[in-house]
Amino acid sequence: MKSQDIYILLKLVCLQQGPSSHSSLIESMVDQYSVRGLAAALGVSKTEVNASIWRSINIGMAIKDRKSGNLKANKKALLEFVVHGLKYVFPAKPAEIVRGIPTAFSAPMLQDKLMSIGDYSYVWPYAEGYQKGQSIQPLFKSVPNASLEDDRLYEYLALIDAIRLGNPREANLAADMFEKRLMSDG
After folding, report:
1. Which domain of life is it from (predicted)?
2. Beta strands in 79-164, from DSSP E residues, in sequence order
3. Is 102 in contact with 131 (CB distance < 8 Å)?
4. How far apart are CA 7 and CA 42, in angstroms?
């Protein structure tokens, strides 16, 4: 499994849940479930998307929908892996102060949920970012761009970073929020 597999599975979840409040023009012009559509929306090469899909199918993290034939994420397996294994396989380590896009506890969906005592904000490095904070390496290099195009994907990725970074209390809060969003239909 590679980090982009989780990234691609999360995009599939977003597609299953319907259009985001902020869908890009590219997504409306291409079959979103196709390798080309996923590659365009996520900034991942078609070769990497295809390899990721096969890895995900082989380990049971993705399945083909019988009715539509579209690929879809196995939400239960994804939830189990994100909550219990992701921080060990793809740990997040805060680094230098940079400009970027807020993630983890600094992201809008978690910002008012926890009280922090003088900690820095966490950001994905991004030159046009609007906040300074400690750098967190995203799951894949194109995460900042894709998160600006899809609000729902941004929420999922930021919650995952909170799970990867957090102490038990913070990680549990993020995991609960992640589960509620993941298991909802929209």
Report:
1. Bacteria
2. 97-102, 122-125, 131-135
3. yes
4. 8
Same domain, 83 and 151: no
3-state secondary structure of 97: strand
What one-character DSSP code corresponds to residue 104?
G
Q: Tokens 């080309």 label which residue?
A: 36
pTM assigned to the model: 0.88
Mean pLDDT, to the nearest integer, of 144-169?
91
CA 131 to chain CA centroid, Å, is: 19
Residue 22, pLDDT above cutoff 80: no
User: 89, 119, 150: which is the final residue of a domain?
Assistant: 89
Q: Does one domain contain both 124 and 57?
A: no
Say which residue, 157 or 24, is predicted with more confidence: 157
Degrees, nearest 5: CA angle 179-100-17: 30
Instruction: Give the strand pairing for 122-125 and 131-135.
Output: parallel
Q: Residue 69: give its domain's CATH number.
A: 1.10.10
- Kindly tell me if the per-residue pLDDT of 97 is higher than 90: yes
Contact between 122 and 94 (Cβ < 8 Å): yes
Nearest to 64 by CA among 78, 54, 49, 76: 54
pLDDT at 182 over 80: yes
pLDDT for the residue numbered 29: 44
